[in-house]
Amino acid sequence: MKTPYLTTLIVSICLYPALSSGEEASPPNIILMMADDMGWSDIGCFGSEIATPNIDRIAGEGIRFSHFYNNAKCTTTRASLLTGIYPRNGGKGIELLNANMITLGEALGDSGYATGMSGKWHNGSKAPHRPFDRGFQKSYGLWDGCSNFFDPNQPDPKFKGGKTRFFGEDDQRITEFPEGFYTTEAFTDHAIETIKAQVKSGQPFFHYLAYTAPHYPLHAKPEDIAKYAGRYDAGWDVLRKERRNRQIKEGIIDPAQYPESGPNPNNTPWEEIPAEERAWEASRMEVYAAMVDNMDQNIGRLLTTLEELEVDKNTLIIFISDNGGCPEEPGGRQIDKKVGPGDHYAHCGPNWAYAQNTPLARYKSHTHEGGVATPMVVRWPNGIKAGSVSDQAGHIIDFMPTFLDLAGGEYPQSRAGQPIIQEEGISLLPVLNGEAEAIDRPAPLFWHWAKNRAVLDGSWKLVWESKGKKEWELYNLNLDRSETKNVAAKQASKVKQMREKWEAWAALTGVAY
């Protein structure tokens, strides 16, 4: 691979386990897991009250990244995660996958890995954009957006007239689901079955496990919901305060760097909600918590499988979210409907989403930290020191170069005669294996969604809110990760410099603004 960290790669190979038979050690297996619409503080190791012992175990036995980023929106995040490049805009809008992009499935398959994908794809449900068209040897799940968790063939009421999402296994569409079906469990079942079969082949494996939980509709099992009965009766304002206090007490955040951000402009104080509606409001968060809890239970099943297969020590596991907590309320608030069962299309709304992102500002679709920051935990017993914490600025575009470093593979100049857009991320392997505490990024990080914009250059972050004052805001994240003190008026030259960088990037990627 053409990367400045090749020397580190050679050194790090020595960290791979020496086999007792004296055989040459193999590169690690890789599992990339992603939650859908989960907030920055929704897992225990980031300050949550939700029970996530298995995700917390990954963090405790590996490394927790506090400054990792996504693209603020499900589709663009998935495109960048798979390709290692920022989304490109074509004549018909965002081009998620095209012929001049290579996916992780293709790149790692070319590097000798067995590949698999389970869960939400959302990068195209027609040829040549399906997972099995783009390098995943085994695939199962939703090829487009989210769906009913108990019966994915139910029409999606989010769309006028209803729309049935495309659920498939490899090249076959699935339209009937058994009694007791639940997507979170089904995705995990497929991942486990695929990994078991691929371990037998003797190849290293790469599996992309993209959960739809806790994305709306809010559907959960009764036994999981029961765990959280009454837990959220005090409301979203109290929850955000509780989480921030827990984050400070447990050393997850430094209050000097994360000042109290106050209420979100779009939030309603809990006390202003009519008393007769509060129980319904609390039930939305109870079901949401149950969905995160169930996802964690299934991650525990996967961890147990790796141990049973005796591949857990040399398997790199990553867990992230595709964007911040979701403020969307398609169809509006229907307080006459019970939240949880599969006959109602429910959602959390902006009030709970703001608490889910404690202590950050905003949420999904926005380019403030609450929209673009993701919790990330990584475990690799043979290569990562347990209990590590990193403030390294990382982004989903970094997975491609990092995974190819781990695989000993090369990023191609072309594939099937088609020139390939070159990767835009950096390898984080030196941070993972402890060779470096931090890596200087050669270029800033950029964002754009729904005319919201941002650029992160070192500790400085420039943000444009399309529905706000329509002017650039500037924050020093080393002093103000909560983005409470806009210093743009005092740093006009810095604003100009960073704005010009964003505009150059927008021209490169075809962003219309």
Could you give a short description of this structure?
With 513 residues, this protein is of the alpha/beta class. Helix content is 29%, strand content 17%. Strands 1, 2, 5, 6, 7, 8, 9, 10, 11, 12 and 13 form an 11-stranded mixed β-sheet that branches. A 4-stranded antiparallel β-sheet has the order 16-17-18-19, covered by helices on one side. Strands 3-4 form a two-stranded antiparallel sheet.
**Name of the top-level CATH class of the largest domain:** Alpha Beta
Shape: globular
The SS-based structural class is alpha/beta
Could you give me the name of the CATH homologous superfamily of the largest domain? Alkaline Phosphatase, subunit A
Count of distinct strands: 19
Biggest pleated-sheet summary: 11 strands, mixed
CATH topology of the largest domain: Alkaline Phosphatase, subunit A
Helix content: 25-40%
Total number of distinct structural domains: 2
Name of the CATH architecture of the largest domain: 3-Layer(aba) Sandwich
Beta-strand content estimate: 15-25%
Total helical elements: 13
Q: Average pLDDT value?
A: 93
Please give the radius of gyration in angstroms. 22 Å
Spans of at least 5 consecutive residues whose pLDDT stays below 50 are: 1-24
Task: Compute the separation of the termini in Å.
Answer: 35 Å
